[in-house]
Amino acid sequence: xxxxxxxxxxxxxxxxxxxxxxxxxxxxxxxxxxxxxxxxxxxxxxxxxxxxxxxxxxxxxxxxxxxxxxxxxxxxxxxxxxxxxxxxxxxxxxxxxxxxxxxxxxxxxxxxxxxxxxxxxxxxxxxxxxxxxxx
Length: 135
What we know:
- It contains 4 helices and 8 strands, in the order βαβαβββββαβα.
- It is of the alpha+beta class and 135 residues long.
- It has one domain: ph1033 like fold (Roll).
- Strands 1, 2, 3, 4, 5, 6, 7 and 8 form an 8-stranded mixed beta sheet that branches.
- A hairpin with a 7-residue loop joins β3 (41-48) and β4.
- The longest helix is centred in the last third of the chain and has 12 residues, at 123-134.
- The model has no long low-confidence stretch (mean pLDDT 96).
């Protein structure tokens, strides 16, 4: 049975992951990835446009399905080897501003978890957000 997740990353990092077909969470830690399994779904929320800038994004920016439970490391530069897993991201989505879901009672229960960078959400919340992104 699939589980549903929110991942938090800057929009530029999400776009890179979408282009390359991977997810990376919590600055490359393996522990959040170990919670996800093949056929699970993830929606990315991007608080900022870029990790190194303060320009806000505050949108849900990508949806993907985990392709495999295989977790692997890559060397992005010497001394930084983040963990990743492969994801099939949906092509035709529209980023959805946080304020489109912020009044939902279902979202109210989960919004404070954004600071953790990765958390499970109920199927109903996933479909509420994903429907906004795909229609």
